[in-house]
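Annual report, structural modelling task.

Input specification for the coenzyme A complex:
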Amino acid sequence: MPETTAPLHLRPAEAEDMPEIVRIYAHYVATSVYTFEEVAPDATEMTRRWRQIREPGLPWRVAERRAGGIVGYAYAGRFRARSAYRYTVENSVYIAPDQVHRGIGLALMRDLIRDCSDLGYRQMIAVIGDSANEASIRLHTRLGFRTIGHEVAVGLKFGRWVDVVQMQLALGEGGRSIPAAQPTGYARA
Ligand SMILES: CC(C)(COP(=O)(O)OP(=O)(O)OC[C@H]1O[C@@H](n2cnc3c(N)ncnc32)[C@H](O)[C@@H]1OP(=O)(O)O)[C@@H](O)C(=O)NCCC(=O)NCCS
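The model returned the following structure:
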C-alpha cells in the first residue's frame, strides 16, 4: 500500500494506470451502493472507458503518492449522448478505501472542474448512488454543487432499494450566456 504521508501528485491518467484504477473501483462495486454496477469491469473494459473519455479530450485524472501507487481518480464524461447536452458533463470520483477523508477527492475534483471549464463545458452533474453517501454529498457541496434531484428507489443492490441524489455545478458562465464555440473535442466525438 502507498505511504500515506508521501506527497500527492495529480496527473492525467494513462492506459497503464487502469489495473490500479480497477482495483480501487472493484472495491466499491463489491462493497457499496455508491456505484450501481454489480460486476466490476476488468482492465480491458476500463481501458475502453478511458479511451472513450480521452478521445474527445475530456479529462481523467489520477492522484498518486510519489512512493508509488494510485490513491484516487476522477473523470468527466458526456452527461448524455444527444447533441443538445454537449455542454454538460457528468463527473465520477473514487478514492482508495484506506485514503479517504484526507482531501484527495477535493484536490482531484478541483482540477477536474478547472479542466472542464477551460474546455468550454458549462454544467457538471454528479449522480450520487445512495442518499446516505455523506462523504460524496459533502464533497460536492464543498465544491459548490447544489442538490437538484432525488430519485427514489431506482436501484436494487444487495437486496435493497437505493436512491440517487443528483447535484449540479455551473462551470464558467454556466447558463448566463450562449457559448460562441463548441466545447473542445465535440466535433471529433
Ligand atoms: C466520496 C469521496 C470521493 C470523497 O473523497 P475524499 O478524499 O474522501 O474526501 P475529502 O477528504 O476530499 O473531503 C471532502 C469533504 O467530504 C467530507 N468527507 C469525506 N469523507 C467523509 C465521511 N466519511 N463522512 C463525512 N464527510 C466526509 C470531508 O470532511 C470534506 O468536507 P468538509 O471539508 O466540509 O469537512 C471518497 O470518500 C470516496 O471515494 N468514496 C467512495 C466512492 C464514492 O462515493 N464516490 C463518489 C461517487 S459520485
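The CA atoms of residues 155 and 162 lie 5 Å apart.
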